[in-house]
Specification:
Keywords: Membrane, Transmembrane, Transmembrane helix
GO biological process, one term: protein insertion into ER membrane
Pfam families: ASTER
Family: Belongs to the Asterix family.
Radius of gyration: 27 Å
Subcellular location: Membrane
Structural class: mainly alpha
Number of helices: 4
Strand content: under 5%
Number of strands: 0
Length: about 100
């Protein structure tokens, strides 16, 4: 089977397609900053950090692509929401027990 002279392709110049290698754990800066601000808001109990964290997380969720780890965004959102929720049930129960003990 010889090369057809009417075929304009040059078989020696044909390069087969190679899929590009996947990116190594690219970190979304919005999701990372949202997680950090949410944790700071929970630790220091300042709700402003949690509001800002939720804004970052929502922006990261809107800009997501196929490589985005949605679980990380959900966990970050839960942390930010927890900071906005205020005191935990355990802290409220401890305050109630302390108030009952002082009676």
């Amino acid at each position: 089977m010889g090369v057809d002279k009417s075929d304009p392709k040059r078989p020696d110049n044909v390069v087969p397609y190679r899929r590009p290698p996947p990116a190594e754990d690219t970190v979304d800066p919005l999701a990372l900053s949202g997680m950090v601000l949410g944790m700071i808001g929970v630790v220091v109990k300042v709700r402003a950090f949690c509001f800002i964290a939720l804004a970052f997380i929502m922006s990261a969720f809107i800009r997501r692509n196929q490589d985005t780890d949605v679980k990380q965004l959900v966990v970050s959102g839960v942390v930010g929401g927890k900071g906005l929720a205020g005191r935990t049930a355990a802290a409220a129960g401890a305050d109630a027990a302390a108030a009952a003990g002082s009676l």
